[in-house]
Amino acid sequence: MRLSALFIRLIVFAAAGFLSVAAARTTVSVVEERSVIAVQETLVDQGYEWAAVLGDGLQVILEGEAPTEAVRFRAISDAGGMVDASRVIDNLSVADSAIIQPPQFAIEILRNDSGVSLIGLIPTTTDREALARRITGIADGLPVTDLLEVADYPTPPNWRAAVNYALRSLEVLNKSKISVTSDRVSVNAISDSPEEKRRFEVALARNRPDGVRVAVEISAPRPVISPFTTRFILDEEGARFDACAVDTEEALSQIMAAASEAGFQGRANCILALGAPSRTWGEAVAQSIAAIDNLGGGTITISDTDVTLIAPAGTGQATFDNIVGRLENSLPDAFALTAELPDLPSDTPEELPQFTATLSPEGEVQFRGRVPDDITNTVVENFASARFPQRNITMGTRVAEGLPSGWSVRVLAGIEALSELSNGAVIVEPENMIVRGNTGNETASASVSRLLIEKLGQTADFEIDITYVKELDPIAGLPTPEECIAQIIAVTEGRKITFDPGSADLTIDTQPVVDDIAEILKKCGDLRIRVSGFTDSQGREVMNQQLSQDRADAVLTALRARRVPVSTFESIGFGEENPIADNDTEDGREANRRIEFSLIQPEPPAEDISILDELAADVTDDAATEEATPDADDSAAESE
Protein backbone atom coordinates (compact mmCIF):
# COMPACT_ATOMS: atom_id res chain seq x y z
CA MET A 1 0.00 0.00 0.00
CA ARG A 2 1.52 3.21 -1.07
CA LEU A 3 1.77 6.12 1.39
CA SER A 4 0.48 9.38 0.21
CA ALA A 5 2.95 12.16 -0.43
CA LEU A 6 1.30 14.32 2.24
CA PHE A 7 1.73 11.69 4.94
CA ILE A 8 5.39 11.29 4.07
CA ARG A 9 5.92 14.99 4.36
CA LEU A 10 4.26 15.03 7.79
CA ILE A 11 6.50 12.24 9.00
CA VAL A 12 9.60 14.06 7.76
CA PHE A 13 8.57 17.28 9.48
CA ALA A 14 7.79 15.43 12.72
CA ALA A 15 11.13 13.66 12.68
CA ALA A 16 12.94 16.92 12.01
CA GLY A 17 11.10 18.62 14.87
CA PHE A 18 11.93 15.80 17.27
CA LEU A 19 15.56 15.86 16.31
CA SER A 20 15.69 19.65 16.74
CA VAL A 21 14.20 19.45 20.21
CA ALA A 22 16.59 16.70 21.19
CA ALA A 23 19.56 18.64 19.83
CA ALA A 24 18.45 21.79 21.63
CA ARG A 25 18.02 19.99 24.95
CA THR A 26 21.38 18.34 24.54
CA THR A 27 23.01 21.68 23.73
CA VAL A 28 21.39 23.36 26.74
CA SER A 29 22.51 20.53 29.03
CA VAL A 30 26.08 20.77 27.77
CA VAL A 31 26.16 24.57 28.13
CA GLU A 32 24.56 24.36 31.57
CA GLU A 33 27.01 21.71 32.79
CA ARG A 34 30.06 23.51 31.47
CA SER A 35 28.90 26.86 32.91
CA VAL A 36 28.30 25.31 36.33
CA ILE A 37 31.69 23.57 36.29
CA ALA A 38 33.53 26.74 35.19
CA VAL A 39 31.87 28.91 37.82
CA GLN A 40 32.32 26.27 40.56
CA GLU A 41 36.04 25.89 39.81
CA THR A 42 36.51 29.67 39.87
CA LEU A 43 34.77 30.05 43.22
CA VAL A 44 36.78 27.19 44.75
CA ASP A 45 40.02 28.71 43.46
CA GLN A 46 39.07 32.00 45.14
CA GLY A 47 38.38 30.25 48.44
CA TYR A 48 34.59 30.48 48.32
CA GLU A 49 33.90 26.86 49.31
CA TRP A 50 30.74 27.97 51.07
CA ALA A 51 29.07 28.82 47.70
CA ALA A 52 26.94 26.27 45.82
CA VAL A 53 26.43 26.59 42.04
CA LEU A 54 23.27 25.33 40.33
CA GLY A 55 22.34 25.35 36.67
CA ASP A 56 18.91 26.09 35.20
CA GLY A 57 19.21 26.21 31.48
CA LEU A 58 21.47 29.09 30.62
CA GLN A 59 21.07 30.56 34.10
CA VAL A 60 23.72 30.00 36.81
CA ILE A 61 22.30 30.19 40.33
CA LEU A 62 24.54 30.96 43.29
CA GLU A 63 23.42 29.80 46.72
CA GLY A 64 25.07 29.79 50.12
CA GLU A 65 25.90 32.07 53.02
CA ALA A 66 28.71 34.58 52.53
CA PRO A 67 30.61 35.67 55.65
CA THR A 68 30.39 39.36 54.68
CA GLU A 69 28.67 41.56 52.13
CA ALA A 70 32.02 42.32 50.49
CA VAL A 71 32.77 38.62 50.02
CA ARG A 72 29.28 38.06 48.53
CA PHE A 73 29.87 40.83 45.99
CA ARG A 74 33.29 39.44 45.03
CA ALA A 75 31.81 35.97 44.53
CA ILE A 76 29.13 37.34 42.19
CA SER A 77 31.75 39.32 40.27
CA ASP A 78 33.98 36.27 39.87
CA ALA A 79 31.04 34.21 38.62
CA GLY A 80 30.15 36.97 36.15
CA GLY A 81 33.66 36.76 34.81
CA MET A 82 33.15 33.17 33.67
CA VAL A 83 29.66 33.51 32.15
CA ASP A 84 27.60 36.47 31.04
CA ALA A 85 26.70 38.47 34.12
CA SER A 86 23.03 38.55 33.09
CA ARG A 87 22.92 34.76 33.46
CA VAL A 88 24.07 34.83 37.12
CA ILE A 89 21.20 34.61 39.60
CA ASP A 90 22.12 35.82 43.10
CA ASN A 91 20.51 33.69 45.79
CA LEU A 92 23.34 34.29 48.25
CA SER A 93 22.73 35.36 51.81
CA VAL A 94 25.08 37.12 54.21
CA ALA A 95 25.90 35.81 57.66
CA ASP A 96 24.78 37.91 60.58
CA SER A 97 27.45 40.51 61.30
CA ALA A 98 29.72 39.68 64.18
CA ILE A 99 29.63 41.86 67.23
CA ILE A 100 31.12 45.21 66.35
CA GLN A 101 34.63 45.36 67.72
CA PRO A 102 35.23 48.20 70.14
CA PRO A 103 37.28 51.04 68.69
CA GLN A 104 40.87 51.55 69.71
CA PHE A 105 40.98 54.19 72.36
CA ALA A 106 43.86 56.58 71.79
CA ILE A 107 44.94 60.09 72.68
CA GLU A 108 47.39 62.35 70.88
CA ILE A 109 48.78 65.09 73.14
CA LEU A 110 50.85 68.01 71.89
CA ARG A 111 52.49 70.51 74.21
CA ASN A 112 54.55 73.54 73.19
CA ASP A 113 54.85 77.24 73.92
CA SER A 114 51.37 77.80 72.46
CA GLY A 115 49.62 75.51 74.92
CA VAL A 116 48.35 71.95 75.11
CA SER A 117 46.08 70.20 72.61
CA LEU A 118 44.43 66.81 72.87
CA ILE A 119 42.68 64.78 70.20
CA GLY A 120 41.47 61.21 70.21
CA LEU A 121 38.86 58.80 71.53
CA ILE A 122 38.38 57.92 75.20
CA PRO A 123 35.91 55.72 77.12
CA THR A 124 32.79 57.32 78.58
CA THR A 125 33.93 56.13 82.01
CA THR A 126 36.78 58.65 81.91
CA ASP A 127 36.40 61.50 84.38
CA ARG A 128 36.53 64.36 81.88
CA GLU A 129 36.45 67.04 84.57
CA ALA A 130 39.38 65.55 86.48
CA LEU A 131 41.31 65.11 83.23
CA ALA A 132 40.60 68.71 82.23
CA ARG A 133 41.70 70.03 85.62
CA ARG A 134 44.95 68.11 85.42
CA ILE A 135 45.70 69.25 81.88
CA THR A 136 44.88 72.85 82.82
CA GLY A 137 47.30 72.66 85.72
CA ILE A 138 50.03 71.30 83.46
CA ALA A 139 49.40 74.04 80.88
CA ASP A 140 50.05 76.64 83.61
CA GLY A 141 47.90 79.38 82.14
CA LEU A 142 48.42 78.53 78.48
CA PRO A 143 45.35 77.62 76.38
CA VAL A 144 44.13 74.02 76.30
CA THR A 145 42.44 72.65 73.17
CA ASP A 146 40.33 69.60 73.99
CA LEU A 147 39.17 67.71 70.90
CA LEU A 148 38.57 64.39 72.64
CA GLU A 149 35.60 62.25 71.66
CA VAL A 150 34.00 59.54 73.81
CA ALA A 151 32.66 56.07 73.03
CA ASP A 152 30.54 53.85 75.24
CA TYR A 153 32.69 50.74 75.32
CA PRO A 154 34.47 48.94 78.17
CA THR A 155 37.70 50.53 79.35
CA PRO A 156 40.67 48.48 78.05
CA PRO A 157 43.13 46.96 80.52
CA ASN A 158 46.01 49.28 81.49
CA TRP A 159 44.24 52.29 79.92
CA ARG A 160 44.26 54.30 83.14
CA ALA A 161 47.90 53.43 83.84
CA ALA A 162 48.89 54.48 80.32
CA VAL A 163 47.02 57.80 80.53
CA ASN A 164 48.44 58.53 83.98
CA TYR A 165 51.98 57.88 82.73
CA ALA A 166 51.37 60.13 79.72
CA LEU A 167 50.19 62.99 81.94
CA ARG A 168 53.16 62.58 84.27
CA SER A 169 55.44 62.73 81.27
CA LEU A 170 53.61 65.82 80.04
CA GLU A 171 54.32 67.55 83.36
CA VAL A 172 58.06 67.09 82.80
CA LEU A 173 58.29 67.80 79.07
CA ASN A 174 57.51 71.33 77.90
CA LYS A 175 57.90 70.50 74.20
CA SER A 176 56.52 67.08 73.50
CA LYS A 177 54.15 64.89 71.50
CA ILE A 178 52.71 61.93 73.37
CA SER A 179 50.65 59.13 71.81
CA VAL A 180 48.64 56.94 74.17
CA THR A 181 46.91 53.60 73.68
CA SER A 182 45.97 51.02 76.28
CA ASP A 183 49.15 49.02 75.76
CA ARG A 184 51.67 51.56 74.49
CA VAL A 185 52.80 55.11 75.20
CA SER A 186 55.07 56.84 72.68
CA VAL A 187 56.87 59.97 73.86
CA ASN A 188 58.69 62.32 71.51
CA ALA A 189 60.21 65.43 73.05
CA ILE A 190 62.82 68.12 72.61
CA SER A 191 65.31 69.10 75.29
CA ASP A 192 67.59 72.10 75.47
CA SER A 193 70.81 70.22 76.28
CA PRO A 194 72.22 66.71 76.67
CA GLU A 195 72.09 67.16 80.45
CA GLU A 196 68.41 68.04 80.33
CA LYS A 197 67.78 65.10 78.01
CA ARG A 198 69.35 62.77 80.55
CA ARG A 199 67.24 64.25 83.37
CA PHE A 200 64.11 63.74 81.30
CA GLU A 201 65.04 60.13 80.55
CA VAL A 202 65.65 59.42 84.24
CA ALA A 203 62.30 60.96 85.22
CA LEU A 204 60.37 59.01 82.59
CA ALA A 205 62.15 55.76 83.41
CA ARG A 206 61.25 56.06 87.08
CA ASN A 207 57.53 56.43 86.32
CA ARG A 208 57.31 53.60 83.78
CA PRO A 209 54.11 51.58 84.47
CA ASP A 210 53.77 47.81 84.41
CA GLY A 211 51.93 46.23 81.51
CA VAL A 212 52.43 49.20 79.18
CA ARG A 213 55.10 49.35 76.49
CA VAL A 214 56.90 52.69 76.51
CA ALA A 215 58.89 54.23 73.65
CA VAL A 216 60.80 57.38 74.54
CA GLU A 217 62.70 59.48 72.01
CA ILE A 218 64.10 62.73 73.34
CA SER A 219 66.22 64.81 71.01
CA ALA A 220 68.81 67.30 72.12
CA PRO A 221 70.98 69.73 70.19
CA ARG A 222 74.51 68.62 69.61
CA PRO A 223 76.75 69.79 72.41
CA VAL A 224 79.30 72.48 71.65
CA ILE A 225 82.73 71.25 72.73
CA SER A 226 85.55 73.66 73.31
CA PRO A 227 88.31 72.81 72.96
CA PHE A 228 87.32 70.17 70.42
CA THR A 229 89.48 67.31 71.65
CA THR A 230 90.46 63.74 70.88
CA ARG A 231 93.12 61.91 72.88
CA PHE A 232 94.39 58.45 71.94
CA ILE A 233 96.89 56.36 73.91
CA LEU A 234 98.82 53.31 72.77
CA ASP A 235 100.97 51.63 75.43
CA GLU A 236 101.55 48.27 77.09
CA GLU A 237 97.95 48.30 78.36
CA GLY A 238 96.62 48.52 74.82
CA ALA A 239 94.96 51.12 72.63
CA ARG A 240 92.28 53.37 74.08
CA PHE A 241 90.59 56.74 73.81
CA ASP A 242 90.71 59.12 76.75
CA ALA A 243 88.53 61.56 74.82
CA CYS A 244 86.88 61.45 71.44
CA ALA A 245 84.93 64.19 69.69
CA VAL A 246 83.78 64.03 66.07
CA ASP A 247 81.87 66.39 63.84
CA THR A 248 80.38 63.94 61.31
CA GLU A 249 79.65 60.25 60.90
CA GLU A 250 82.24 60.15 58.12
CA ALA A 251 84.90 61.51 60.48
CA LEU A 252 83.93 58.88 63.04
CA SER A 253 84.39 56.13 60.47
CA GLN A 254 87.85 57.45 59.53
CA ILE A 255 88.95 57.68 63.16
CA MET A 256 87.65 54.24 64.10
CA ALA A 257 89.32 52.65 61.08
CA ALA A 258 92.69 54.12 62.10
CA ALA A 259 92.14 53.12 65.75
CA SER A 260 91.31 49.56 64.74
CA GLU A 261 94.53 49.38 62.73
CA ALA A 262 96.36 50.49 65.88
CA GLY A 263 94.81 47.67 67.90
CA PHE A 264 91.78 49.36 69.42
CA GLN A 265 88.91 47.01 70.22
CA GLY A 266 85.46 47.63 71.57
CA ARG A 267 83.28 50.71 71.38
CA ALA A 268 84.57 54.26 71.66
CA ASN A 269 82.29 56.79 73.31
CA CYS A 270 82.89 59.39 70.64
CA ILE A 271 80.62 62.41 70.95
CA LEU A 272 79.03 63.83 67.82
CA ALA A 273 79.30 67.53 68.56
CA LEU A 274 79.68 71.04 67.23
CA GLY A 275 82.88 73.04 67.44
CA ALA A 276 85.24 71.21 65.09
CA PRO A 277 87.94 73.62 63.88
CA SER A 278 88.04 72.18 60.36
CA ARG A 279 86.11 69.97 58.00
CA THR A 280 89.23 67.80 57.80
CA TRP A 281 89.04 66.91 61.50
CA GLY A 282 88.52 63.20 60.87
CA GLU A 283 91.45 63.05 58.44
CA ALA A 284 93.79 64.83 60.89
CA VAL A 285 92.88 62.54 63.80
CA ALA A 286 93.18 59.39 61.69
CA GLN A 287 96.65 60.38 60.44
CA SER A 288 97.79 61.20 63.98
CA ILE A 289 96.63 57.84 65.32
CA ALA A 290 98.41 56.08 62.46
CA ALA A 291 101.61 57.94 63.39
CA ILE A 292 101.77 56.64 66.98
CA ASP A 293 100.86 53.20 65.65
CA ASN A 294 103.95 53.40 63.44
CA LEU A 295 105.98 54.55 66.44
CA GLY A 296 104.84 51.49 68.38
CA GLY A 297 103.12 53.52 71.07
CA GLY A 298 102.70 56.96 72.54
CA THR A 299 100.01 59.54 73.11
CA ILE A 300 98.37 61.78 70.55
CA THR A 301 96.25 64.76 71.59
CA ILE A 302 94.35 66.86 69.05
CA SER A 303 92.86 69.96 70.65
CA ASP A 304 91.26 72.24 68.09
CA THR A 305 94.01 72.69 65.49
CA ASP A 306 96.92 71.83 67.82
CA VAL A 307 98.28 68.30 67.51
CA THR A 308 100.58 67.07 70.27
CA LEU A 309 102.46 63.79 69.86
CA ILE A 310 104.40 62.23 72.72
CA ALA A 311 106.48 59.26 71.63
CA PRO A 312 107.40 56.36 73.91
CA ALA A 313 110.57 56.90 75.91
CA GLY A 314 113.48 55.16 74.24
CA THR A 315 112.26 55.59 70.67
CA GLY A 316 115.14 55.94 68.24
CA GLN A 317 115.79 59.51 67.14
CA ALA A 318 115.88 58.60 63.45
CA THR A 319 112.59 56.71 63.67
CA PHE A 320 111.05 59.58 65.62
CA ASP A 321 112.21 62.18 63.09
CA ASN A 322 111.01 60.12 60.13
CA ILE A 323 107.49 59.44 61.42
CA VAL A 324 106.99 62.93 62.86
CA GLY A 325 108.21 64.47 59.61
CA ARG A 326 105.78 62.46 57.53
CA LEU A 327 102.90 63.36 59.84
CA GLU A 328 103.81 67.03 59.82
CA ASN A 329 103.80 67.13 56.03
CA SER A 330 100.59 65.14 55.60
CA LEU A 331 98.41 66.92 58.16
CA PRO A 332 95.76 69.26 56.69
CA ASP A 333 96.90 72.88 56.44
CA ALA A 334 94.91 74.10 59.44
CA PHE A 335 96.70 71.81 61.92
CA ALA A 336 100.03 72.41 63.66
CA LEU A 337 102.10 69.58 65.14
CA THR A 338 104.17 69.57 68.32
CA ALA A 339 106.17 66.38 68.91
CA GLU A 340 108.06 65.33 72.02
CA LEU A 341 110.50 62.48 72.61
CA PRO A 342 110.80 61.95 76.41
CA ASP A 343 114.11 61.02 77.96
CA LEU A 344 114.50 57.65 79.60
CA PRO A 345 113.55 57.78 83.31
CA SER A 346 116.37 58.18 85.82
CA ASP A 347 117.33 55.19 87.97
CA THR A 348 117.52 57.32 91.12
CA PRO A 349 114.04 58.06 92.41
CA GLU A 350 113.38 61.40 94.02
CA GLU A 351 110.66 62.32 96.47
CA LEU A 352 107.96 64.30 94.70
CA PRO A 353 105.28 66.50 96.25
CA GLN A 354 101.85 64.99 96.01
CA PHE A 355 98.21 65.91 96.55
CA THR A 356 95.56 63.20 96.90
CA ALA A 357 91.78 63.59 96.76
CA THR A 358 89.43 60.66 97.42
CA LEU A 359 85.68 60.22 97.15
CA SER A 360 84.28 57.16 98.92
CA PRO A 361 81.16 55.26 97.81
CA GLU A 362 79.44 56.65 100.92
CA GLY A 363 80.13 60.21 99.76
CA GLU A 364 83.03 61.01 102.09
CA VAL A 365 85.55 63.44 100.55
CA GLN A 366 89.11 63.56 101.87
CA PHE A 367 92.09 65.70 100.85
CA ARG A 368 95.69 64.92 101.76
CA GLY A 369 99.00 66.34 100.61
CA ARG A 370 100.68 69.68 100.11
CA VAL A 371 99.39 73.12 99.22
CA PRO A 372 101.51 76.27 98.77
CA ASP A 373 99.80 78.54 101.34
CA ASP A 374 96.80 79.06 103.62
CA ILE A 375 94.88 80.97 100.97
CA THR A 376 95.11 78.02 98.59
CA ASN A 377 94.03 75.70 101.38
CA THR A 378 90.91 77.80 101.96
CA VAL A 379 90.20 77.97 98.23
CA VAL A 380 90.50 74.18 97.99
CA GLU A 381 87.99 73.69 100.81
CA ASN A 382 85.50 76.19 99.38
CA PHE A 383 85.86 74.82 95.86
CA ALA A 384 85.28 71.29 97.17
CA SER A 385 82.16 72.42 99.04
CA ALA A 386 80.78 73.80 95.78
CA ARG A 387 81.67 70.68 93.80
CA PHE A 388 80.51 68.21 96.47
CA PRO A 389 77.45 69.79 98.09
CA GLN A 390 76.00 68.09 101.16
CA ARG A 391 79.07 65.88 101.47
CA ASN A 392 81.33 65.46 104.47
CA ILE A 393 84.69 67.00 103.51
CA THR A 394 87.81 66.18 105.53
CA MET A 395 90.87 68.41 105.04
CA GLY A 396 94.16 66.64 105.68
CA THR A 397 96.37 69.04 103.72
CA ARG A 398 99.43 70.90 104.96
CA VAL A 399 101.18 74.05 103.79
CA ALA A 400 104.62 73.45 102.27
CA GLU A 401 107.17 75.59 100.48
CA GLY A 402 109.00 74.93 97.25
CA LEU A 403 106.07 73.49 95.32
CA PRO A 404 106.25 73.65 91.51
CA SER A 405 104.76 76.54 89.59
CA GLY A 406 101.10 76.02 88.75
CA TRP A 407 100.58 73.59 91.63
CA SER A 408 97.35 75.28 92.75
CA VAL A 409 95.90 75.00 89.25
CA ARG A 410 96.75 71.30 89.13
CA VAL A 411 95.12 70.71 92.53
CA LEU A 412 91.89 72.47 91.58
CA ALA A 413 91.79 70.65 88.24
CA GLY A 414 92.16 67.36 90.08
CA ILE A 415 89.26 68.20 92.41
CA GLU A 416 87.10 69.13 89.44
CA ALA A 417 88.01 65.84 87.74
CA LEU A 418 87.06 63.93 90.91
CA SER A 419 83.62 65.55 90.87
CA GLU A 420 82.89 63.71 87.60
CA LEU A 421 83.11 60.35 89.43
CA SER A 422 80.73 58.48 91.70
CA ASN A 423 83.71 57.32 93.75
CA GLY A 424 87.43 57.25 93.16
CA ALA A 425 90.69 59.07 93.71
CA VAL A 426 92.93 61.68 92.09
CA ILE A 427 96.69 61.83 92.62
CA VAL A 428 98.38 65.09 91.64
CA GLU A 429 102.14 65.15 91.00
CA PRO A 430 104.37 67.78 89.37
CA GLU A 431 104.64 65.95 86.05
CA ASN A 432 101.66 63.63 86.14
CA MET A 433 98.07 63.28 87.31
CA ILE A 434 96.23 60.01 87.88
CA VAL A 435 92.43 59.81 87.90
CA ARG A 436 90.88 56.49 88.91
CA GLY A 437 87.36 55.55 89.92
CA ASN A 438 83.86 54.46 89.02
CA THR A 439 81.02 56.33 87.40
CA GLY A 440 77.53 55.86 86.02
CA ASN A 441 78.24 58.21 83.10
CA GLU A 442 79.58 56.54 79.97
CA THR A 443 81.18 59.77 78.74
CA ALA A 444 82.97 60.62 82.01
CA SER A 445 86.42 59.63 80.69
CA ALA A 446 86.08 61.98 77.73
CA SER A 447 84.84 64.79 79.97
CA VAL A 448 87.76 64.40 82.38
CA SER A 449 90.26 64.25 79.54
CA ARG A 450 88.94 67.45 77.96
CA LEU A 451 88.94 69.13 81.36
CA LEU A 452 92.58 68.29 82.10
CA ILE A 453 93.72 69.32 78.63
CA GLU A 454 91.92 72.63 79.02
CA LYS A 455 93.30 73.30 82.51
CA LEU A 456 96.82 71.85 82.21
CA GLY A 457 97.62 72.20 78.52
CA GLN A 458 97.93 69.78 75.64
CA THR A 459 101.36 68.51 76.61
CA ALA A 460 100.25 67.61 80.13
CA ASP A 461 100.82 64.02 81.17
CA PHE A 462 97.91 62.33 82.91
CA GLU A 463 96.44 58.86 83.31
CA ILE A 464 92.72 58.13 83.33
CA ASP A 465 91.33 54.83 84.57
CA ILE A 466 87.58 55.36 84.91
CA THR A 467 85.23 52.39 84.93
CA TYR A 468 81.62 52.63 83.87
CA VAL A 469 79.43 50.79 86.38
CA LYS A 470 75.90 50.10 85.22
CA GLU A 471 74.53 50.08 88.77
CA LEU A 472 75.65 53.70 89.18
CA ASP A 473 73.88 54.83 86.01
CA PRO A 474 70.68 56.65 87.01
CA ILE A 475 68.91 55.13 84.00
CA ALA A 476 70.44 51.71 83.41
CA GLY A 477 70.80 51.12 87.14
CA LEU A 478 67.16 51.72 88.00
CA PRO A 479 65.84 48.76 90.01
CA THR A 480 62.69 46.99 88.91
CA PRO A 481 59.65 47.11 91.21
CA GLU A 482 60.35 43.55 92.30
CA GLU A 483 63.98 44.43 93.08
CA CYS A 484 62.82 47.42 95.14
CA ILE A 485 60.55 45.24 97.27
CA ALA A 486 63.32 42.66 97.63
CA GLN A 487 65.70 45.37 98.90
CA ILE A 488 63.11 46.57 101.43
CA ILE A 489 62.50 43.01 102.62
CA ALA A 490 66.25 42.52 103.03
CA VAL A 491 66.36 45.61 105.26
CA THR A 492 63.38 44.61 107.41
CA GLU A 493 64.55 41.02 107.82
CA GLY A 494 67.65 42.13 109.66
CA ARG A 495 66.13 45.11 111.50
CA LYS A 496 62.46 45.00 112.34
CA ILE A 497 60.15 48.01 112.39
CA THR A 498 58.99 48.22 116.01
CA PHE A 499 56.52 50.36 117.95
CA ASP A 500 56.02 51.36 121.54
CA PRO A 501 53.86 48.78 123.36
CA GLY A 502 50.17 49.15 122.58
CA SER A 503 50.68 52.26 120.41
CA ALA A 504 51.45 53.32 116.84
CA ASP A 505 54.54 55.33 117.80
CA LEU A 506 57.75 54.20 116.10
CA THR A 507 60.57 53.41 118.49
CA ILE A 508 63.82 55.35 118.33
CA ASP A 509 65.68 52.24 117.15
CA THR A 510 63.33 51.99 114.17
CA GLN A 511 64.16 55.43 112.74
CA PRO A 512 67.35 54.26 110.92
CA VAL A 513 65.37 51.37 109.41
CA VAL A 514 62.77 53.76 108.01
CA ASP A 515 65.60 56.00 106.75
CA ASP A 516 67.07 53.11 104.77
CA ILE A 517 63.68 52.13 103.36
CA ALA A 518 63.08 55.74 102.32
CA GLU A 519 66.41 55.85 100.47
CA ILE A 520 65.47 52.69 98.57
CA LEU A 521 62.04 54.03 97.64
CA LYS A 522 63.46 57.33 96.39
CA LYS A 523 65.47 55.40 93.82
CA CYS A 524 62.52 53.28 92.74
CA GLY A 525 60.20 55.98 91.46
CA ASP A 526 56.43 55.92 91.78
CA LEU A 527 55.42 52.38 92.64
CA ARG A 528 52.08 51.06 93.81
CA ILE A 529 53.01 49.67 97.21
CA ARG A 530 50.89 48.31 100.03
CA VAL A 531 52.09 48.82 103.61
CA SER A 532 50.44 46.08 105.67
CA GLY A 533 50.20 46.04 109.46
CA PHE A 534 49.79 42.88 111.54
CA THR A 535 49.42 42.15 115.26
CA ASP A 536 49.39 39.09 117.49
CA SER A 537 46.20 37.51 118.80
CA GLN A 538 46.30 39.16 122.22
CA GLY A 539 43.29 41.39 122.88
CA ARG A 540 40.07 41.88 120.99
CA GLU A 541 40.03 41.36 117.23
CA VAL A 542 38.55 44.79 116.49
CA MET A 543 41.18 46.56 118.58
CA ASN A 544 43.96 44.56 116.95
CA GLN A 545 42.70 45.50 113.51
CA GLN A 546 42.59 49.19 114.43
CA LEU A 547 46.06 49.06 116.01
CA SER A 548 47.52 47.40 112.90
CA GLN A 549 45.87 50.06 110.73
CA ASP A 550 47.30 52.87 112.87
CA ARG A 551 50.77 51.35 112.70
CA ALA A 552 50.63 50.96 108.92
CA ASP A 553 49.49 54.60 108.70
CA ALA A 554 52.37 55.63 110.97
CA VAL A 555 54.92 54.01 108.66
CA LEU A 556 53.35 55.75 105.68
CA THR A 557 53.50 59.08 107.51
CA ALA A 558 57.15 58.51 108.41
CA LEU A 559 58.01 57.83 104.77
CA ARG A 560 56.12 60.93 103.67
CA ALA A 561 58.10 62.99 106.18
CA ARG A 562 61.28 61.71 104.50
CA ARG A 563 60.09 63.09 101.14
CA VAL A 564 59.12 59.74 99.67
CA PRO A 565 56.32 60.15 97.05
CA VAL A 566 53.57 58.03 98.64
CA SER A 567 50.60 59.15 96.54
CA THR A 568 50.38 55.67 95.02
CA PHE A 569 50.86 53.84 98.35
CA GLU A 570 48.12 52.39 100.51
CA SER A 571 48.18 51.28 104.15
CA ILE A 572 46.01 48.43 105.40
CA GLY A 573 45.72 46.92 108.86
CA PHE A 574 45.02 43.19 108.88
CA GLY A 575 45.00 42.74 112.65
CA GLU A 576 45.75 39.20 113.73
CA GLU A 577 45.20 37.70 110.27
CA ASN A 578 47.87 35.67 108.45
CA PRO A 579 50.11 34.78 111.41
CA ILE A 580 53.58 33.62 110.44
CA ALA A 581 54.36 32.06 113.83
CA ASP A 582 52.65 30.45 116.80
CA ASN A 583 50.78 32.98 118.94
CA ASP A 584 51.10 30.71 121.99
CA THR A 585 54.75 31.70 122.52
CA GLU A 586 56.29 35.10 123.17
CA ASP A 587 58.69 34.73 120.23
CA GLY A 588 55.81 33.79 117.96
CA ARG A 589 53.73 36.78 119.04
CA GLU A 590 56.73 39.05 118.51
CA ALA A 591 57.17 37.69 114.96
CA ASN A 592 53.48 38.24 114.18
CA ARG A 593 53.67 41.92 115.20
CA ARG A 594 55.11 43.16 111.93
CA ILE A 595 54.97 45.56 108.97
CA GLU A 596 55.14 44.14 105.45
CA PHE A 597 55.72 45.85 102.08
CA SER A 598 54.30 44.41 98.87
CA LEU A 599 53.46 45.50 95.34
CA ILE A 600 49.84 46.22 94.50
CA GLN A 601 49.15 44.04 91.51
CA PRO A 602 46.74 45.44 88.89
CA GLU A 603 43.37 43.75 89.01
CA PRO A 604 42.35 41.88 85.86
CA PRO A 605 39.40 43.46 84.06
CA ALA A 606 36.02 42.01 84.95
CA GLU A 607 34.64 39.66 82.34
CA ASP A 608 30.97 40.52 81.87
CA ILE A 609 29.59 37.58 79.90
CA SER A 610 26.55 38.63 77.92
CA ILE A 611 24.53 37.22 75.06
CA LEU A 612 26.50 39.38 72.65
CA ASP A 613 29.76 38.00 74.06
CA GLU A 614 28.51 34.45 73.57
CA LEU A 615 27.50 35.21 70.00
CA ALA A 616 30.93 36.72 69.36
CA ALA A 617 32.56 33.58 70.72
CA ASP A 618 30.41 31.40 68.47
CA VAL A 619 31.29 33.49 65.40
CA THR A 620 34.99 33.30 66.29
CA ASP A 621 34.80 29.52 66.69
CA ASP A 622 33.01 29.14 63.35
CA ALA A 623 35.57 31.32 61.59
CA ALA A 624 38.41 29.33 63.12
CA THR A 625 36.80 26.09 61.94
CA GLU A 626 36.38 27.40 58.39
CA GLU A 627 40.00 28.52 58.22
CA ALA A 628 41.37 25.14 59.35
CA THR A 629 42.48 24.00 55.88
CA PRO A 630 45.39 21.83 54.68
CA ASP A 631 47.23 25.08 53.89
CA ALA A 632 47.33 25.80 57.59
CA ASP A 633 48.97 22.45 58.19
CA ASP A 634 51.56 23.21 55.54
CA SER A 635 52.28 26.59 57.15
CA ALA A 636 52.70 24.95 60.53
CA ALA A 637 55.13 22.44 59.07
CA GLU A 638 57.16 25.23 57.48
CA SER A 639 57.32 27.16 60.74
CA GLU A 640 58.65 24.09 62.50
From TrEMBL:
InterPro entries: Bact_OuterMem_StrucFunc, OMP_bac, OmpA-like, OmpA-like_sf. Residues 617-640 are annotated as: Disordered. It is found in: Cell outer membrane. GO terms for cellular component: cell outer membrane. Residues 1-24 form the signal peptide. Residues 486-603 form the OmpA-like domain. Keywords: Cell outer membrane, Membrane, Signal. Its main location: membrane. This is OmpA family protein.
